[in-house]
Amino acid sequence: MDETPPPTWSAKLRHLLRKGVTLAVVTVAFGWFYGWASPTAFPKDRVAGFKEGALHGALMPLALPALLMGQNVPIYAAINSGRSYKIGYICGINLCGLLFFGLAFRRPTSAKSDKSR
Cβ(96)–Cβ(57) under 8 Å? Predict the structure, then answer.
């Protein structure tokens, strides 16, 4: 059997550093995108309804990087239609969480299990 040796400390450190740099780049990209998109997603001249609530809820997790970068971005429409906006907002947050956590915790199928079928 061909066994690979355990990774060294320098390999582990390089791996962690690569993960940290990737996280920082993605965070800055998300923050920039949210800051760029928020004026379009949060218009000041109309009442937000269910569709806008779903959009705002889906975008809300992206607001954290923008807020950490010092941008004062909105996460909720102050002028909204009430219950329908709030239901849309909750649906958007849940859909975004389902998509994110569904992809984050997905286990790829192995080639062995595919051959046995």
Answer: yes
Cα 81 to Cα 30, 39, 40: the distances in Å are 28, 19, 18
Do the domain assignments include residue 39?
yes
The residues, any chain, with a CB within 8 Å of residue 30's CB and separated by 6 or more, are 62, 65, 66
Q: Tens of pLDDT along 44-92?
A: 888 999 999 999 998 888 888 888 888 888 889 989 999 999 999 999 9
Q: Which residues lie across from 80 on neighbouring strands? A: 48
Number of domains the chain contains: 1
In a domain, 32, yes or no: yes
Pairwise CA distance, residues 101 & 105, whole Å? 6
Give the residue numbers spanning the domain of 55. 10-108
Query: Token match 């609530």: residue?
Result: 53
Cα-to-chain-centroid distance, residue 83 = 25
